[in-house]
Design goal:
It contains 20 helices and no strands. With 391 residues, the protein is mainly α. Among the domains are: 1-90; 102-197, Leucine-rich Repeat Variant. The protein is globular. The chain starts with 5 loop residues before the first helix and ends in a 24-residue tail after the last helix. InterPro entries: AP3_complex_dsu, ARM-like, ARM-type_fold, Clathrin/coatomer_adapt-like_N. It holds the Pfam family Adaptin_N. One of its GO terms (cellular component) is AP-3 adaptor complex. Residues 20-353 form the Clathrin/coatomer adaptor adaptin-like N-terminal domain. This is Ap3d1 protein.
Length: 391
Amino acid sequence: MWERTLQDLIRGLRANKADESKFIAKAIEEIRQEIKSDDMVLKSGAVLKLTYLDMMGYDMSWASFHVVEVMSSPKLHLKSVGYLGAIQSFDQDTDVLMLTTNLLKKDLTSSPADIALTLNGISHILTPDLARDLSPELIKMLTHSRPAIRKRAVLALYKLVKRYPEVSTQVVSRLKDKLEDPDAGVIAATVNVLCELTLHNPKDYLALAPPLFHLMTTSSNNWMLIKIIKLFGTLSPYEPRLVKKLQPPITELISTTPAISLLYECVHTCIIGGMLEGSSGDALARTCVSKLAAFIQDSDQNLKYIALLAMVKIVPTHPHLVAQYQDTILASVNDQDISIRMRALDLISAMTKRICKTLFNKSFHISLPTHPVQMHLPLQSHWPSIPYHLL
């Protein structure tokens, strides 16, 4: 029967495009019979086909209990089908998730392959109740002997903290340890998770600044450096001492790195992290503006776009530096790409507003009298009458 394999189901769909709904209705009816079978191979095949149909928009929530049954299979290739079905179809309101607590705990103490599969699944199906009940097991996985397991456990921590914020204090200390893990993949996963977690509660992760700074000054991995620079861009507004600490290494990175993505991230972090403010940021601001000006002159339209966006943010603090490249900026107004023209006009508008404000302030102070002047206003009775509708 074609219904017994996913491959045959797909072939049938391709062959019945003219009457697809009727074909699928018949297929689902067959699946309803197969999924009740005691044969776990047949049941898992039915779940696999339902998962495919769910991706096409056909609801499979009615089969949630059968998905859990397949998840409990002792055979890895069948268990993986169950987890795939759960990832695809379960949500926070799925009732049968309350039945999976013991199953998930058992799988987290099984073979490394089962643990890896379970960690992948947990990241998608975790609910607040499951997060509370499974937090000890998930945190324990951070010390597993296999780097692949530790990496998956670190990645699962993001969803754990999101679903169960009460565990965040414990997670911070564990993540600090993972920043010094002997495996580079685990460290990369930790930095990635921190990038997401700090977006919600940056102050909770300020204690991780020292190990992150050590990584930034010792790592040669551009991907890692980009993530760490982003992290510091989020953290530095909450810890003023970080600004002074970060200025020298970031200046060196901007001046020496050939990687465009890393260079832009450094410039962007300097802007949003407040590193260009004050007299100490003048040299760094000059370096950033010169690099952005080079981006504007580049043939890559994407570089032009992000450079113009970044310069708009530098105008409030260093308008004189941006003004040095006004010819380059004005040339962008005639660019063929309308998005480039719009961003160039935004930048020119920002520069003009800043110049007008400066000129107004200067002229206002110059025109102020050096001694108080007494104003003698005429009595109201002598004022000219103004029609009410003009007021």
